[in-house]
Amino acid sequence: MRQAILGVSARALLLLSAGLALIFCGFVVVPSQVRAENSQYFAQTGKTVSGKFLDYWQNNGGLATFGYPITDAQNEVDPETGKTFLTQWFERNRFELHPENAGTKYEVLLGLLGKDLRRPALEHDASFAPAQPLAGATFFQETAHNLTGGFLQYWQQNGGLERFGFPISELHQDIDPETGKVFQVQWFERARFEYHPENQPPYNILLGLLGNELKKESNFPARSTETLWKLQANQSLIWEPVRAAADSKGNVYVINQFVDTKSTAIYAIQKYSPDGKLLLRWGTRGSGPGQFIGLIDLAVDAKDNVYVVDSSNHNIQKFDSQGNFLSSWGNSDQMPYPTAIALDSQGNIYIAELGDSHRIQKFNSQGQFLQEWGSFGSGPGQFNTPLGLAFDAKDNLYVADSNNHRIQKFDKQGNFLLQWGGYGTKTGQFQSPQDVKISPAGYAYVADSFNQRVQKFTLDGKYKSKWGKSGTDNGEFLHIRALAIDPQSNVFAVDDAQPDLQKFDQNGKFLSRFATAPDDQFLINEHIGLDGHNNLLVGDWKLSRTQRFDSNGHFAGIEQPFNARAITHDSQGNLYLMTDRALNKYDASGRLVTTYKLAEGAQLVAVDMEGAIYFLSVFTSSKTPVSNMLVFKYTANGDPDKTWADKGKLDLKIGRAYALAVDAQGNLFVGGVNEVRKFDRSGKPALQWGTYGSHDGGFKIINGLDLDGQGNVLVADSENQRIQKFDSQGRLLAKWSIPEGILPQPDAFKVDSNGDVYLSYYLSVFKLRLS
Of all residues in the chain, what percent are helix, strand and coil, respectively (each to 5)? Predict the structure, then answer.
């Protein structure tokens, strides 16, 4: 009886306390959130949803949309606005009660979880950078991102802007931290869409578990790996230009070739303003409208429509000036090996071809065949690899007959008029000319490819001038492939070995470079390294430079204007960048201290605490055709260390090695194909572990090896899709799965002093935290 009285009194006191809280604390709990008759308890997570939050949950998709509740209702500060709201977290989102919107459909809003989770990516992940409008997509000017296909349909049919917000990224591949798998995803202010091809519609598009990811301290399983941030190559820049053409306003269209994460060639058309600003980009891989497999050339008509010829799809596609698909025609019988396209003043289309024919075909603007001429040979009207076409104001056709090293000129009926050129390096001669273009001023410009120059002629073939030489500076070329000329007779040179375009006036004076990568972008991240402050360095062979990013992924400068093939540092803060034949040492201020010349075949480098240098080289003797992996050791002065191994040289006697690392005691660790070898300070074998397989401590293909701050050895195994950690005696300490499809390349796996992992894979560099 006494216990009952005490129980009633305690309950009354609790109710009184709750009432006082409601009166004096204001926005702590609202009555509609505590009414038992409007509540639902979820045994799966032990949480209750009530009032307006329950109404919203039930009326807007429920479990399939938001998942289970993972917290109780509580006050929180919104990181986007700094205001305090009553919130409740669910597996896929956060509900916010906004009393200022009472009586409207905006009284309950979803939190900006997409932005909360990806704030670092908004600053430096290329997938989140402002994009250009894509043909066939809905473009949101508010965030400068595109939405297309199934994601656009899902967004429109399931709440759109009110529920998901604007897109804050482009469609791209990313890791699902809940499962470790890689999906096609797109981020929005309030959600992440994931494409799951393994599921049947409508479950092939799912929402990410953003609530779980932000509230991972709850009772949900911890992630094996967490993506802290990702740097991504910018696919909107020019990777490998193929051809270019200018319209009546001086805008320039460029065929750009790049590769995806599977090393598959992707072609896109990019449109630039006369001053080099990217205006538009369209094209994906495939055989449908607006899709390409082997873009080879393009031309622009008087109405600024764009015609492109696809050698692999054997067709021509026509687009308007905004990239909208208009029509297409052609098949493998009509044009089995097309190489170039040009339009006359009536809009007729001329196609150059290889294969058995080596001919020119003429079609009208609807794609109907009109005539053809030419055959394989070196006589007048014959061709050996016709690669470039152009018309003058009188509709005479000029053909760059590449392997005959000449230019041929025909009237519009295909009658031969004249030719000029011949093989050689003198003025007026060519080495494989690959394009010819006619300027409004009435001159012919020839891309003299293997002479690395542009030559200018009158329309009857008289030499006028030339410019260019071998190199990568302004006015220099490596392999000039094509030309474009604007209405002012400015000449654009397409060099497929350089990731931009060069613009010249009609006399060859250099004016500018188009689409040059800014300092915070990379194209090919082949090699990465860390300095002594956990800053990341990315060696980019395509841009011939090494860039530095801080530990949060922010751009911190260009280290040197060349691509470092291996990167490391010593305990004094000195940085070592290896090029093809030399190792450059820089002090902490960036001053070049010394340069070490390396033997041929040097691939990897490591430096110990005393500044001694180890580098791994592939060596093939004249007596033995089999390559050996040799490790050379030099003192800090650059002299061979005669006390180490065989007077400074160690033959590993293994078929391949993929990583070098030195611990604080001077022990050298070498990662082979499926084993790790340890050598002491004198180069004597000290330990070996690992066998082929998927068992603990086993390896299939070691793609990376590095040491953490405690001297533990972390080994990345691409075939087993995992990272294993061992102590210095080879005892297994832990293992983590590497997300599917994210495989490190040799010398592209680094561990910082905190144990976080940097992993470079094709077009991206990931920073992972192993939990």
Answer: 10, 45, 45
Total residue length of the chain: 771
The position carrying tokens 């030099």 is 634
Residue 495 · residue 717 · CB < 8 Å: no
User: Which class for 71: exposed (0-12), middle (13-18), buried (19 or more C-beta within 10 A)?
Assistant: middle
Q: pTM of this prediction?
A: 0.68
- Phi, psi torsion values for 451, nearest 5 degrees: -95, 0
138, 141, 146, 150 alpha-carbon torsion, rounded to 10°: -50
- Asked if residues 223 and 178 have their Cβ atoms less than 8 Å apart, the reply is yes
Q: What does the DSSP 8-state code read for residue 37?
A: G
Q: How wide is the angle at C-alpha 492 spanned by C-alphas 489 and 494, nearest 5°?
A: 155
Residue 674, classed as helix, strand or coil, is coil
- For the segment 171-220, what is each residue's pLDDT rounded down to a tens digit? 887 766 656 677 788 988 878 898 988 888 888 898 877 766 665 443 33
Contact 560, 582 (CB under 8 A): no
Q: Note whether 433 and 407 are within 8 A (CB).
A: yes
Residue in this structure with the two tokens 């007026």, named with its chain if needed: 428
Residue-wise pLDDT for 28-71, tens only, equals 333 333 444 589 999 988 999 999 999 999 988 888 778 899 88
Q: Which amino acid is at 168?
A: I
d(CA 577, CA 559): 9
- Contacts by residues 262-266 (CB-CB < 8 Å, ≥ 24 positions apart): 263/762, 265/293, 265/294, 266/235
Q: How far is CA 307 from CA 141, 316, 340, 415, in A?
A: 28, 7, 11, 25
